[in-house]
Design brief:
single chain, 3-stranded antiparallel sheet, 30% helix, 196 residues
Length: 196
C-alpha cells in the first residue's frame, strides 16, 4: 500500500480505546463511524486487537509524524493483522476458535437482543472500548455499507481467503455456508433496534 507507516518511539499502530483515534473536530471520523469500525471487529470476532495489529499510514508524499514533530496532512487507519478472527473471541486467543465456521456462525453480534451491547469477549490482547453511546448511529452507518456488498463480492472474499479449506478445529464449511453466515450477521446489524 502506498504511504508511510506512522510510528514514533511512543506510538505504534492504534487501538480502539486509544487517544490516537481522530475526532471529527480534528478532521477525522465521527463517533458513529469509529464505532461502526468497532462493530466490524465484533462481526468478525477480532480478538487480538492490540495496537501493534493496526497501522496508521500517512498517504501524502510528506513524511509521517515522527519524533521531531512533523505532521501528516492525510492519514489512513487500517487493520494490519486479522489472524485471530472468524471464530469466537476468547480470553487467550486460542487458535481453535479462529476461522472456525461452527463457532463463528453461532456467535451473535449482540449480547442481548434489542440492546446496544455488542458481543465480543474480552481478550488479554484486545484493546476494546464501548460503543454504547453511539450504537444506534454506528449500526445505521455500518448497515448502509454492508448492504452494498453483493453476493458475488462475499463469495469472492471467502473463496480467495480459502476459508473452505480451513477448519479451525471444527467442521469444514463451504464458501456458500460462510457467505450465508456472513449474511445472517449482516442481517443482525441491519435489523437491530437499539434503545433510544
Amino acid at each position: 500500500m502506498a504511504g508511510k507507516e506512522m510510528d514514533t518511539s511512543h506510538i505504534t499502530g492504534w487501538a480502539c480505546r486509544s487517544s490516537t483515534w481522530s475526532t471529527r473536530k480534528r478532521g477525522g471520523a465521527s463517533r458513529a463511524e469509529r464505532d461502526a469500525l468497532k462493530l466490524v471487529a465484533v462481526i468478525i470476532q477480532h480478538t487480538d486487537s492490540k495496537a501493534e495489529q493496526q497501522r496508521l499510514v500517512c498517504l501524502s508524499a510528506r513524511k509521517a509524524i515522527t519524533d521531531n514533530g512533523q505532521e501528516c496532512p492525510e492519514t489512513f487507519m487500517m487493520v494490519n493483522d486479522l489472524g485471530q478472527t472468524f471464530g469466537h473471541a476468547n480470553i487467550y486467543n486460542r487458535n481453535a476458535v479462529s476461522v472456525n465456521y461452527g463457532e463463528w456462525s453461532h456467535t451473535p453480534v449482540w449480547k442481548i437482543p434489542h440492546a446496544a451491547s455488542a458481543n465480543l469477549a474480552r481478550s488479554v490482547t484486545a484493546a476494546r472500548s464501548s460503543i454504547r453511546r453511539s450504537a444506534k448511529k454506528a449500526r445505521k452507518f455500518l448497515a448502509s455499507l454492508l448492504a452494498q456488498l453483493t453476493d458475488r463480492q462475499l463469495h469472492d472474499l471467502f473463496a480467495v481467503s480459502r476459508f473452505a479449506e480451513r477448519t479451525g478445529n471444527g467442521p469444514a464449511a463451504t464458501v456458500d455456508e460462510w457467505v450465508a453466515a456472513f449474511k445472517a450477521k449482516r442481517a443482525e446489524i441491519v435489523n437491530h433496534t437499539c434503545p433510544s
